Amino acid sequence: MPGLKEVFDKPGMAVVVTPVLLLGWAVSFCAVSFHLAFPVITRQLNLSTIHTAWIPTVYLIAGAVFGLPIGRVANRIGPRNAFATGIFTYIIGALFVTLSGNFRILALSFFTMGAGSAMLTVTGRSLLWSVCGPQEREKIYGLLITFISIGTLSGSFLGGIIIHFLSWRVIFAIGALIGLLSLLLVLRKIPSGDGDPSVRAFDIPGALLYTLFMVAFLLGFSHFPSETSLFLIPFALLMLLAFGWFETRTPTPILRLELFRSNNTFRFSSVSVAFQQYSTYGIWFLMSFYLQHVNSISPAETGLILGANAAVTAALSAVSDRIAKLIGKSSMIILGLLLNTMALTMLALILQQFDITLIMIVMFMLGVSVALTATPITSLMIDNVPERHRTMASATLNLAKKMGSSLSMGTVMLIFSLLLGSAKLTGVANDDFLASMRVIMVIFALLSTVPLIYGVVHVIRKRRS
Q1: Is 196 part of any domain?
Q2: For residue 297, which phi and psi values (nearest 5 degrees)?
Q3: How many CA atoms lie within 13 A of 329 on its CB side?
Q4: Cα–Cα distance between 211 and 356 in angstroms, integer?
Q5: Which of 234, 249, 264 is the last residue of a domain?
Q6: Cβ proximity of 121 and 27 under 8 Å
Q7: Residues 93, 113 contacting (CB under 8 angstroms)
């Protein structure tokens, strides 16, 4: 397998890899820093419990909605142009976040950022795959995961310091600046390429049905058990069924369901990433409040504690290709999923008695889990589909992540709605918050066993065949 120097020396490689790595860092940096800033933003903008949880959720909904159609858009206008469009959208969203003064503007700004993030992530990964040979992909994607983890790490450390001493708005000004530099590099250095005008760019009915499902389902979650939720949740499930029916009949689907039916490895990878995101995404949101609101720890110190997760992910992701060669990709994923379940179970048990050492151990275990699963899951999903479907496979990977993350925040909103009501989160009693968080962590831990059991069965069947 070639080293990184040989990979970057390949003609045209550096100009593609550099903006993708920079944006991987920036998106991760802003996302993690924002989680640290939640308690501060909640106080400054006077947000209720449900409004607070909806801010990251609209970001995820936008990512899930725009992540699928962008695959077909990229085929029509060319991946470079689609990538640049995603960067521009992300910049606009980040700039408006810095100017937000109320819930509506903040939510709309985050929706725009989420759409841009999904577009640049899907097309950026597709661009990487187009310039990398089979021998180079795992190493390059391991490098991308490392940069994303460094973004998480710097968001934890530097983001906490910026929030504490400057303002949370500075975080998104930095994200917009990195986006602008990357956009200029893309427009000046990467050839526009040729799209295929004959490709139908946007499956409007499919996208509409999927959007209605996501919004109705999460709205229903957040209002449960009101009369509104009793209408919205069945309506969402009806939209999901309609989406599945339509996608199997349209000649240009935004999601090829036959990939799930006919490709066991693709299905296993999708299930694994969706459930892992589900069981872990809400942790950043909850731990930020747990440390700052319940235990009176500053944003800077909170970042140092949560940064243990990103530090170990960054370190191990750089050598993930070597680990895969030693134990195999499927075994690597199962080991990561096992650590994930163990960490979540520990966290549910230690919340009442705050112990900084145990919290750091849990963050370390979660970081190892991500490092062991991220690269092999991506490799298995994209390498096991035909070349013509790789952009869609990348979009499906993004969809699985966003779906898992959205439902993770949906679960948080559901439990908050049931146990805390519409009170302001910073005004909730510590015992009530801890009780809600413990229920959420038990749910996360239980459902994290689903991909673990499925993975073991998948490996056993694969070896027998």
Answers
A1: no
A2: -100, 140
A3: 18
A4: 41
A5: 249
A6: yes
A7: yes
